[in-house]
Request: fold
Amino acid sequence: MITVEGLTRKYGSFTAVDDVSFVCQPGRVTGFLGPNGAGKTTTMRVMVGLTPPTAGRVTIGGHLYNDIPNPGRHVGVLLDASAQHAGRTGREILELGARTMGLPAERIDEMLELVSLTPAEAKRRLRNYSLGMKQRLGIAHALLGDPSVLILDEPANGLDPAGIRWMRGLLKGYAERGGTVLLSSHLLNEVELIADEMILIGHGRIVAQGDKKSLLAGAHGTASTFVTALDNEALATALRTRGLTVASAGDGLRVEAEPVEIGRTAAENAIVLTDLRAAEGALEDLFLELTSETQREVLA
Amino acid sequence: MTAATLDLSGTPATPFHRLVRVELRKSYDTRAGFWLLAVIGLLVLAAEVIVLAVVTTQDEAIAFGDFIGTAAFLTSFLLPVLGIMVLTSEWSQRTAMVTFALEPRRPLVIGAKALVGVLLTLATVAVSIVIGLVCNLLYGLIEGHVDWTFGWSDFAAFLITQVLAMLGGFALAALFLNTPAAIVVFFVYKWVLPGLFALGAALMGWFEALRPWIDFQSAQEVIWNMSGTGTEWAQLVVSGIIWLGLPLGFGTWRVLRAEVK
Amino acid sequence: MTTIPASGLGHSLDLSSTTPTPFGRLVRVELRKTRDTLAGFWLLLSTAILTALVMVIQLAVGITQDDVSLSYNSFLTSTSFSIAVLLPIIGIMLLTSEWSQRTAMVTFSLEPRRPNVIAAKLVVGLLLAVAAVVIALGLATVCNALYGVLSDDPTVWNASVAHTAAFVLLQVVGMLTGFAFAALLLNTPAAIVIYMVYSFVLPGLFELGAQLMDWFDSIRPWIDFNSAQSPLVDATMTGKDWSYFVVSGFIWLAVPLAVGLWRVLRAEVK
Reply:
C-alpha cells in the first residue's frame, strides 16, 4: 500500500506538487493520470526518495522508502526507461540489478522471457534499443526482485498495441495476486483500460479520484448514449416526444440518456437499431475539463 | 495542394550563415556552455589582476605584451576545450540526430561549428587584449611608467596560435567524438608530450633530427618571431599536417559516414 | 469470493526477512560497472597497454643508447606518463558516469543509503589503483630482467618496501584526487579539465609565484599538493615532508571530497 500524505514539492517559486494526498490499495491497479508537467513524475520521484519533499511524506507499506532494506525486493521502480547507460547490454543492466539485490542469475532469464526480449535482443546495447524495448527492459528490471509494490512512470509509452495489451494482462494479474500497482500516464485510454482506480492530477493538485464509474457519475448527472437506427429520423422524433435531447452525430444520434431508455423507446416504436452504446469520450471530456488551464474547483 | 512530387522550387537551401548563427547560439544557450565561456573570460581577468598585483607590489617591470602573454597561456588550453565541446556535445547529448535531420549536408554543419570555434577564439582574443590594455593602463597609473611593447606581428601571432590551439581541440574531438577521451588526449598532447619529445631528443640523435618535423607545439615558435627560415616554416606545415590535418581529415570523414544514434 | 493474499503482500510491508544490501555486494556490482561498457573496458585496457608501451619504449631506448643506464625503479617511475595520468581519469569516471548516463536514479533506488554507494565506488577506485600498481610492478620486473639480458649495463634491482609503499600511496592519492574533483563537480568534462589544470598547469604557476614573492615561497609547500608528493617518487619523505603532504592533501583532497559528498548525499537525482 502506498500512502501519500500532504505532499508538496516546490522549486523556488514554482510549485510542482501542491498538497497531494492519496492511497494506492493492494490488489488494485491505480492509474495516475494528468497532462504533461502536472506533477506525476515529481510525486513518484519523492515516493522512491530521489527527490526530497518540501512538505508531507510518502510511505510504502508503512515505511519511508529510504528505510526499506534492499528496497528492490519490496518495491519495483521504473521512472525512466532511457535512464540507463547506453553502452550496456540489456542483459547486463538486469545482471547489475540482480547482483545488487542478491538474486540468482536464473531470475534474469525468467524476466527476459516474461517481457518477451529474445536472447539476441538482450545481447544488444541499450543505444540500439527502440523505446518499446527499453520499456520492456525497464519493466523487467522493476519486476526483478519480485516486489509487492510497483511504481511505474509512463510504462506504456512507446509500447505497440500488442505490448499495451500484454502489459494490461501482466499488471492485472499482478494486482489480483495482491500486489499494489501505481502507474502514471498522460493518455486516458491507456489508464482507462488498465486501472481499477484513477487519480487525476493537474497543475500539481489532485482534481478527482475514484473508479471510472464514480468519476463519470460525479461529473455529469446524465449519461450520454450513441445510437444508430435504420430510420434515424423516426427514432429522433420518438425520443424528442419523450423529452430527451437529441443531436445528430456521424452516422447516428447522440442522446442525453441511458442506453436502456433508448432501447425501450425503439422497442415501443418498432424501430430497428444497428448500434447502441454509451457514448465514448465522456471520460475524456471530464479529463480535459478537470485539467484544463482554466480549471475550476470541482469534485473532491 | 497534393502532388506526387514535392515542389522544392520555392525553398532555398539553408544558407551557411544561418547555420553559423545557430551553432553560435548553441555554444552559450546551455548552462555548461555558458559557464565554459564565462570561466574563460573570468580566468583571464583573474590571472591579469594577479599579475598586476604581483608586479606592482614587487616593483617588477612589465610590458603590454607580457599581459597578453599571460592571457595567451591560459587560453592556449581553455580554447581547445571549447573546440572539443563545440563538436562532442552534439554526440554526448544526442542532438546530432536533430541537427543532421534539419541540415543533412553534414560538411556544412561541421564547417559552421569550426567557424563558430574560430569566432569564439577571436572574441576571446579581443577580450584578452582589452583586459590587458586596462591592466597595463592601471600599471602605468600606479608605477608612473608604462611600456606598450606589443607589435602587429605579436598580435597576428597571438591570433594565429590561438586559432591553431582551438582547431587542435576541434580535430581531436572529430577524431574521438567523445568528450572525456578528447580532453584527456589533448592535455597529454599539450603537457606530457613536450617532455617526452625533449627526453627522446636528448637521448637519441636520430630523434633529435626528426623532432622539429613532428613537434607541432615547438614548431609554432616561428609564428611569434615571424622571421623564420624556410625550413622552420616547412616544419610548421609538416607537424601541423600530422597534428591538425590528419585528425581533422580522418575525423570529418568519420562524422560524414557515421550512423547518427 | 474470498482471496487469500500471498504472504508478504498486504497493507504493510513485512521487512523482517529482508537484510540490508551487504557492502561487499555493492562493491562487486560497482566493480562490474567499471568494465561492462565498451568505454569503461577500453579505459582500463588502454591504461594497461599505455603502461606497457611506455616501459617498452624506455627499454628500447635503454638498450640502444649506451649512455643511458636503467634500474628497476626507473622503469617504475615511467608510470608517471601512463598510470599517473589515466588512474585519476578512472577515478573521475567512476562517479561522474552515473550522472552523465543518468544511472544514478536506478542505483539510488536500489540502494537509497547513498553513503554506502559512494563508499563502494571509493573502494572500487582503491582496488583499481592497487591492480594498476600490481601490473606496473610486474611489467617493471619483466622489463628490468630483459634489460639485464639485452644491455651491457648491470641489472639494478633497487626495489624496497619503502619504495613500493610510496608507489602505492602515490597511485592511490592520484585516484582519490580525481574522485574528489568528480564528487565536487559531478560532470565528466569539467572534472577532467580541472584535474588536468591542477596537475599540469598549477605547478608552473606555483613555481612562478614562489620566484616572484617571498611570502608565497614560504606558504607554497603547505598548499602545493603536487610538489608535496614528489619526495614520494624516490621514497625520501622526511617528517617535514609528511606535514606538507598532510596539510596540502587536506586542501586538495579532503575538502573537495567532503564538499562533494555532502552534495551527492543531498542532491536531487535527475
User: Anything to note?
Assistant: Chain C is about 75% helix and 0% strand. The CA atoms of residues 55 and 75 of chain C lie 6 Å apart.
